[in-house]
Amino acid sequence: LGYVGGGGERRPGVAQFHQTWGQAEPVTVDWQGMSGHSTVSAGFKEVRGEWQVPALEVTARTGRLRLAGLGATVDLHLPQGLDGLMLGDVDYVLKSMEFAADGARKDKGLQLALQNLAFKISSWETDGLVNGTLRASFQKLNVDGDVEGPGVYDMQASNLDAAALREMQQLSRSLQADRELSPQQVQAQMAAGIGKLWPRIAARSPALEIRDLSFQDPDGHLHCSGKIAVDGSKKEALANPLLLPNALSPEASVDVSTALLRKAFGAVVRQQLVKARAASCKPPLSERQLDAFVAAGSDKGVASLVEKHILIPNGSAYTLSASYRSGEATLNGQPVK
Prior knowledge:
Layout: E1 8-10, E2 17-21, E3 27-31, E4 35-40, E5 46-60, E6 63-77, E7 87-101, E8 111-126, E9 129-138, E10 140-143, E11 146-148, E12 151-161, H1 162-177, H2 183-203, E13 207-217, E14 220-230, H3 235-239, E15 248-257, H4 258-279, H5 287-307, E16 312-314, E17 317-325, E18 328-331, E19 334-335
Antiparallel strand pairs: 1-4, 2-3, 3-5, 4-5, 5-6, 6-7, 7-8, 8-9, 8-10, 9-12, 10-11, 12-13, 13-14, 14-15, 15-17, 16-17, 17-18, 18-19
């Protein structure tokens, strides 16, 4: 059914097909079709839908890409009095992705495989304020035999002035629709518009928080979190760019395993050594020599950060925490002078 009068239901579908284009450089597409349904309420105040694609494979002389288990769901609505500002939930999933360069030959080119990728975006309005979350995750990522995962990125935005967001969205749409404006002019006018809305946004004490940024690999783990909040009650500081830091309260923490930290340092040391040898026109180091220099450089780099109290040993890992409040910065619980 069509969306007559802004309401109705549709069941979009694209039939499966297998097709090859080109003779000199043939490209074959194997599309397993798409199914789903969507509904829209009268006045477009609510939009709901769900779509699935079983598989898509594209093969060419230079490589192959295969996607399986694609899916999306949407559940959006217009809050009362905020026409044009759609809030709700949007979910995307991808069960697997495989990419192989150079005709899928295992002895050459890039080999990449990704499992269980998921995105979820949620937003809601309460008492004139918009809050939202974004979560992205994957189970496993394999790049040429190097396996990472699982990995997570989870963030939240809080206390965003709903009316100001709607005006910002309307301004963006009007600028994008003006074909006489250059991209630079659009950016400049958008920045000016945000500047005018900033006092209203800041007065509601907005905050942006990375609740979890983490991944696991065979060498260990990395967990990060952080937050920056605006104190809307400090009106004098918010009105003066020089005093603005006094109205902000950023904080961050890191927990990284020893093996993974040494691996990260090692990658930097190795790159610097290779570049330095090449620049000096000296013969390259043997792999054994390079490994020895890398191990020594990694140990020295980690020890230096521990000595400066930037990293704190914690069993088989290291931690770091930093914050800034009311003009005072702290690192690992100690004032920074």
